[in-house]
Task: inverse folding
């Protein structure tokens, strides 16, 4: 089967060591047709400029820190990567997170099987860099399960297990989609116009949905999402001791 190109978009600011771990988790994928696009949001760590990245990594250096300059969240930073992406698919990865080696293969195969162009997965939650020798809580099914179950109380959308197909009505109630798990066909992101700029002060004070949630809702007006309940990413709750790009 001819594997379609996946463009992996990673925004980063002053978390170089974490970024290298994230890149390694992509380079170790069993799915081998991908490009990595790093959007460096004006980092002051000189290693971003002095150390060479692998040949299939494209780095965009924003001269000025755009998140601080514009007051928007990281969605606008990801848009730089989406705009130069060559892939049929866009996959998102935060620079402090980590992928399991079969993430792309399992996820894209499921998208093709179900003929759904938007997908997300279960993951692991921990604090600090991923360590394969440690046991971690599942992100949705353990760490945040009680919170999620409470959100859907009184609806018929969530029983004891997550449904396989998620639609607009399901995600409108609560954002169960973790950004580092998402793969979506690029034509849908182009149709949507990418992430909208929502002021950081707004979404951090829970005034309306944050940029990720807003984007997922926009995509779910165009299609459904296929959810894979196997953990295929690791989420670092400590955020690599740097800027959180959630």
Result:
């Amino acid at each position: 089967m001819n594997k379609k190109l996946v463009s992996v978009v990673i925004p980063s600011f002053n978390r170089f060591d974490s970024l290298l771990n994230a890149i390694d988790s992509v380079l170790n994928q069993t799915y081998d047709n991908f490009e990595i696009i790093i959007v460096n949001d004006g980092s002051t760590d000189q290693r971003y400029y002095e150390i060479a990245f692998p040949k299939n990594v494209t780095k965009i250096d924003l001269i000025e820190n755009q998140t601080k300059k514009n007051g928007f969240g990281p969605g606008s930073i990801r848009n730089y990567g989406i705009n130069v992406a060559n892939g049929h698919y866009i996959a998102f990865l935060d620079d402090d997170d980590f992928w399991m080696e079969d993430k792309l293969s399992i996820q894209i195969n499921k998208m093709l099987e179900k003929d759904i162009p938007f997908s997300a997965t279960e993951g692991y939650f921990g604090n600090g860099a991923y360590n394969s020798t440690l046991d971690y809580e599942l992100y949705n099914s353990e760490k945040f399960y009680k919170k999620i179950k409470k959100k859907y109380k009184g609806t018929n959308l969530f029983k004891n297990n997550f449904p396989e197909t998620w639609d607009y009505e399901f995600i409108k109630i609560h954002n169960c989609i973790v950004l580092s798990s998402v793969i979506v066909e690029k034509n849908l992101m182009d149709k949507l116009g990418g992430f909208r700029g929502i002021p950081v002060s707004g979404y951090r004070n829970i005034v309306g949905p944050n940029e990720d949630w807003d984007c997922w809702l926009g995509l779910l007006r165009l299609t459904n999402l296929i959810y894979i309940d196997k953990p295929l990413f690791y989420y670092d709750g400590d955020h690599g001791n740097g800027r959180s790009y959630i």
DSSP finds eleven helices and ten strands in the chain.
